[in-house]
Amino acid sequence: MRSFAGGTRWSFRSREGAVALGQRTRARPQPRGVWHLVQQLPPPGDTSGEDRLPEAPRDPRALTRRGRIFPRPGEALLLLLGVAVSLLIAEGAVRLARAGDPRATGYAPVNTRRPENGWTNSLGYRDNEHRPAKPPGVRRVVVLGDSFTWGAKVEFDDAYPRRLERGLARHRGEAWEVISLARSGMNTVEEAEQLGTEGLAYDPDVVVLGYCLNDSEDDNAAEARRARDWTEMKKERRSPSDGLERSALYRLIRRRIWATVENRRRIAAYRSMYAPEYPGWIAGQRALKSMAEWCRERKVPFLVMIFPLFGNPLDRDYPFPEIHAAVSRAAAEAGARVVDLLPAYRGLNWELLVVDGPNDEHPNEIAHRIAADVLLSALDDVLPPPARRASLPPPGGASKPPSRADLP
Fold first, then answer.
1. CA angle 253, 255, 258 (to 5 degrees)
2. pLDDT at 96
């Protein structure tokens, strides 16, 4: 005898089983779905109800319909509508918060490609003209470095070599010349060659090396990096503009994902440049020893000033303290005076120290000001200032020397 219960076809081996099932059906509606089949199974070891075992449904789609694996069309429509409303609310919130685009840092980057902002002297350096022979009564500082020392995207007088020159004249009461031999893209090996061929010819009283953490990059790695950056820039220019770019939410998500991936890649790349077997780091350590030896032979103090990478939090999450320690150790072993700028920037918002937020992480005028002040204090340690001559007090009170706060 065959019967239908809950829309599912059943087969019974006895009439008593059918009658019993019919009575239960009339007394209480049968549950539907997969759980109904599970309830019909006897407990383990029970053989008394073999005649009541249901057959498996012959139509597999019955479970899909009765078990509700797929939502009904109305439920699917409500789900899509809820997602759309949520995205619209998120889009409005991002637009109100103006989080879809990079925030303005309050610093206007200077276009140093213009002749009036990035002018150079006859030797191609961003500096005034200097004669090789040192004028009588003048003391000199030779500064080496890359684009950080050159002063990318800042005014000429705001770069730390110019600020150092003015600070030395005011603080020490002497005539000083700070000769900048910085050029963008230079590494430690090239800076050592530059010191030997040009820098020492100016008869310096102090030599300062502005060290950036990419100075250990060798020529092959630098060429590969520039090729990769050029390829990525070319892809961005070729990519067609789509409607998603109008969405502030999309721009925010895309920028966060790109920043996360790029930051991880950059951290790994910088750490690899200071592996003990990395050729650029090995050559850089030899260059530091050469520069320190040349300065020691001439009894000239040699300072290595280490810049942090500003595109990272300058707090406990700063990812390169071990690199600062490695450079400091190598410079100290070579005989240089180490000036690590990381403690001076510690706790500051890095976005307020760069020229153009995440688009350009070169130090801005504020960061150059801090670097010049730290370097000025370090020069007092290696080259004590002369005793100031006493002067007659002006009418109405005593004179006092300018304080460090009065320095530009």
1. 105
2. 80
